[in-house]
Amino acid sequence: MKVDAARFLRDLHELRNFGASGVGKGVVRPAFSDADVAARRWLAGRFAEAGLRVEVDAMGNVFGLADAPSLLMGSHSDSQPEGGWLDGALGVIAALEVARAAREAGGPAVSVVSFQDEEGRFGGLTGSSVWSGYTPLPEVDGIADHGGLTLRDARQALGDLVTGDVNPAQFTGFIELHIEQGLTLAAAGEQIGVVDAIVGVRQIPITLTGQQNHAGTTQMHLRRDAFQGLSRFNTTLNDRLRNVVTPTTVWTIGQVDLHPNASSIVPGRVTFSMQWRDGDADRLRRMERIVRDCAEEVAGDMGLGVEFGPMWELEPTAMDTRLRTALEAGAETVAPGKWRRMHSGALHDATNVARLMPAAMLFVPSIGGISHAFEEDTDEEDLVAGLRVLAEAVARL
Amino acid sequence: MKVDAARFLRDLHELRNFGASGVGKGVVRPAFSDADVAARRWLAGRFAEAGLRVEVDAMGNVFGLADAPSLLMGSHSDSQPEGGWLDGALGVIAALEVARAAREAGGPAVSVVSFQDEEGRFGGLTGSSVWSGYTPLPEVDGIADHGGLTLRDARQALGDLVTGDVNPAQFTGFIELHIEQGLTLAAAGEQIGVVDAIVGVRQIPITLTGQQNHAGTTQMHLRRDAFQGLSRFNTTLNDRLRNVVTPTTVWTIGQVDLHPNASSIVPGRVTFSMQWRDGDADRLRRMERIVRDCAEEVAGDMGLGVEFGPMWELEPTAMDTRLRTALEAGAETVAPGKWRRMHSGALHDATNVARLMPAAMLFVPSIGGISHAFEEDTDEEDLVAGLRVLAEAVARL
């Protein structure tokens, strides 16, 4: 099987035009936005041109199917509100090129998928989560984005493409190529990372409630200031976690909504996102205990109310040994001495697909480790190296 | 002169219907909102019925004028995005009742005003600031609210009422009745506070800039997290200020805008409001030094960029002795032994009007010290007590 690097790069750059931010190579292509819908229609056309049978499920996951049984490859084509051109898109277009090359070579049978809403406009990894049966569609259908639009309404934009459910039983396994989104490979000057496990994640919205009041007349000792509660929670938590975490553990307060958010008013309420990730399920549990105790304690000390929203949790996921071994052999052929085994600190659709079938993942470097930002980029020779490793692995399976 | 308490309370409750929030007695009547415009048209009608000459300046300040020379009384009728029914409204309606009673008694000459945008949709104390000549209208006209609407465009809603500039030289002084918006009077079981000085305020927007990145793949020691910078700034500042402040000094971070504000992204930028108030101009200056040094130092330590926006500053304002003495005599008559002299921790239109003429202020208690919230309220007998003190003082001038 012979992949065509130029054809692969052409398609990758063409996909970038859907939702181009005009800032570097950045894209604004959140799930079900006009740009995302247009990109998915374009992908469906490309899949068909490649001789694949296009099927789209109710969630908006777009498949290009070879005759069963086949190996499934792909990722997602939606982006963060301010995203890079490779996050997800690389895995979809590389899968398309391998599927094309495989058909031209008379086999093996390779199918392609672009999952919907990996970036979590309506949750997190929503498309693969629903397809894997982990989350029932009716359950997430009511979720609204920041603008108040529900998934149920957003899905209408792709309604005319929907063909129905796509049976996972027809696939022998799943391989996803993705950018690392970290500094490990770039810092080491390596081209390829073969993932051995995807870290687990916990995320919980926390609300602290105090007393909204006038910022000029309310003496400091009488205040119940929700922002001060958040600040003390953050400081206390950072201190408490030191004894529990490893150098690869991460935790983030990335979203903060203060109410009423006015400069002359003591904030009466704050809702913020508390997220933490680690490769060890037990450590994730211990961190949850610390997060909850910290919030309860700080709220108690400061006379604030505290509420925990529903926790989103994904366990760490080990990659399939057979698929991983094929990727390692491919890596050694394409980039001898310039690859490594590593954890994935980011979640990926492979996390959900692994519930259904053997799954594996491959990384290429991210320049400066930057991702989820317009500046996200990767040297084209590394992109092509990733494509070739996929082809080598598929040929071996 | 005999004020009519029932007529006063009727008008006060009628004004509450404009922008009624449906939560308690709360109102949603920001400057130039439909509710505010309707309320100002209603006020203009009430002023005319009281035999006052209605004049409205380009800024939307609504005057009811007696023959010059006259004593000006009033406050503002716009509210916070989530405001109480008395903040501003009380001073306007009490002034209207005193003006009516004075006319019925054949004098003295009392004029009434409702200043526009005291609550700062387009700055802060905007209406009285422009009328006092402190801020040129063309300078604030370009200011946009959170929704992007500029003051220039918002002003059109009252354009048909505008009669032109209102000459301050026709007024012999200004008296403003207002709720305390704090706990001092309520805690002491007192009915009246005669203001001796209004505290000064400083407010500055601060932006910390780090590196937006993926919350799963960016190791903690490689992060430049803008939210972590804000949290450390807040903790450090609270600690540094302890040596400088008094029990009446206040400081507030009331507005926080995190970017991009997503749970799976390390925040790359945060802009927040830093506000502090004190009765001593020198202390305000020393606090500014600490705020700026703290931000520079934390940003330096954490590899963040720091930018300071334009500082909004108002110096502490002493009240006029002659007017204040008349209010104190009135207080001793209406509420013997149940009144005190006090600072105003809140800014008021009197701060600006004091640039033009002798000015004084009177407080009535706020239940629970709550204001800038739907729950804001005051016992009606305290409201009437405030009205009577105004009348007593005016009779003495």
From TrEMBL, chains A, B:
Keywords tagged on the record: Hydrolase
Record SUPFAM superfamilies: Bacterial exopeptidase dimerisation domain (SSF55031), Zn-dependent exopeptidases (SSF53187)
Molecular function in Gene Ontology: hydrolase activity
CDD domains the record matches: M20_bAS (cd03884)
Pfam families: Peptidase_M20
NAD keyword on record: no
Keyword match Magnesium: no
Domain of life the protein comes from: Bacteria
EC number, as in UniProt: 3.5.-.-
Cross-referenced NCBIfam families: hydantase
Family indicated by similarity: Belongs to the peptidase M20 family.
The protein's name: Hydantoinase/carbamoylase family amidase
